[in-house]
Amino acid sequence: MTVTSAAVRELPLIGEVLADAVHRCQTVGLDGGLTAYVVEEPGKTLTVSAHHRVYDALVPVTTQSFGADMTPYWAQRSKEGYLERLAEFVLVGDENGAFVGWTGHHLLRFDEHVIIYLDSTGMVPLRQSKGTMRKLMRERIVHHVLPQCPEHLPVYLTARTESPIFYRLMLGLTDGGAVFPAPGTPLPEGVEKCGVDLATWLGQRTILEPGTLTLRNAYDTLDELYGELPTTGNPELDAMFRGTLGPLDAFLVVARMC
């Protein structure tokens, strides 16, 4: 179901969403008068009441971001314990304190490797395409996440997405490193194993096509994820997404960081 602008609720205020917890957040100043509020281990540091407010607030913010009704998505994610499982959740506020963006990640330690899984990221349309989220995510990954990872294991940055725009963001986060799947390029063995481990952790191993890192019907709680499918203007990249994925499919995107 595509949502028109008239159906989008007013954006909530971060101070009201986090309440007293806002004073315990690390804050990071961003371009354009934006501020990031970093909540480490939200499952431990936020009350259950705060979790409910965050889930409620994410509905209008993500509905604006994706152009489709995200109510069923967050109903399902709340049942799965999205916030409870995250290593870090970041809310982005504008100069008036309105909630305009978000990102979160998990840090998954396996015997063979470590997986940083970026789990839901976005900005409302007026704040998109300015590089703000890429800068924020890179700062958090490079300076706060990678130092926590053991030096003797490979570390993979990963996400689940059907958006070539997010894929392009991943390219920026890796500082020019290889991102998979890539057009016309076979998967390295370690990348495929990472994808299998991640799909298993997500509970989606049975719908993964390992050789292409494709998840079939990955978003089965939605009619569609995007009101209008995004494109990058890069014909090869756009064709990889549109030629492989159906409306509810996704790629597991994997990049080795070290």
TrEMBL record:
Top-rank taxon of the source lineage equals: Bacteria
Name-wise, this protein is GNAT family N-acetyltransferase
Q: Per the UniProt entry, what species is this protein from, by scientific name?
A: Streptomyces cinereospinus
